[in-house]
Amino acid sequence: MIPSATLRAVVLVVVAAVPASSWGHAVLVESIPPHKATLTASPQTVLLRFNAALERMIIQVYLVDHQKTRTPLADVDESKPNEIVVHPPKLPPGVYTILYKVLARDGHITEGSIRFTILDV
Ligand SMILES: [Cu+2]
């Protein structure tokens, strides 16, 4: 059996080995529609652009409506390594959130969201 002090030392070494720098983290730099956008029609496409390349296997995107119903959305365009493109279903007026969870190639997972409103026009 490994003494717990030894185990603790091993954990500390592993944590210290992860670079403190945020270089390579996938941070959202732009979206279409932009966060807090007000739209007059349901968006056919939502684009999320990150500052770094993403690991395609781990991408999770959900559409969340005002009742907190989550609909998973598939990335339909993998041509740019730092972009996610999804096609939401045709949405009635309301407030919607796009939740994303991505893994950058540096091994760090980033989660976030954008919100937009579709007006009843
Ligand atoms: Cu990172």
Structural write-up:
It is a single chain. With 121 residues, this protein is mainly beta. The protein has a single domain (23-118), classed as Sandwich (Immunoglobulin-like), CATH 2.60.40.1220. It is built from 1 helix and 8 strands, in the order αββββββββ. The chain has one helix at residues 4-17; strands spanning 28-32, 37-39, 46-50, 60-64, 70-72, 83-86, 94-103, 109-118. The strands form 2 sheets. The protein has a 5-stranded mixed sheet with strand order 2-8-7-4-5, with no helix packed on it. The protein is globular. The N and C termini lie far apart (69 Å). It binds copper (II) ion. Copper (II) ion is lined by residues 22, 24-25, 104, 106, 108.
Cα end-to-end separation:
69 Å
CATH topology: Immunoglobulin-like
CATH class: Mainly Beta
Which small compounds were modeled alongside the protein? copper (II) ion
Give the biggest sheet: 5 strands, mixed
Question: How many helices does DSSP assign?
Answer: 1
- Widest sheet: strand order? 2-8-7-4-5
Structural class: mainly beta
- How large is the radius of gyration? 19 Å
Tell me the β content: 35-45%
Average pLDDT over all residues? 87
Query: How much helical structure, as a percent, in the residues?
Result: 10-25%
Give the low-pLDDT segments: 11-21
* Overall morphology: globular
Counted beta strands: 8
> So, CATH architecture?
Sandwich
Order of helices and strands: HEEEEEEEE
The total number of structural domains is 1
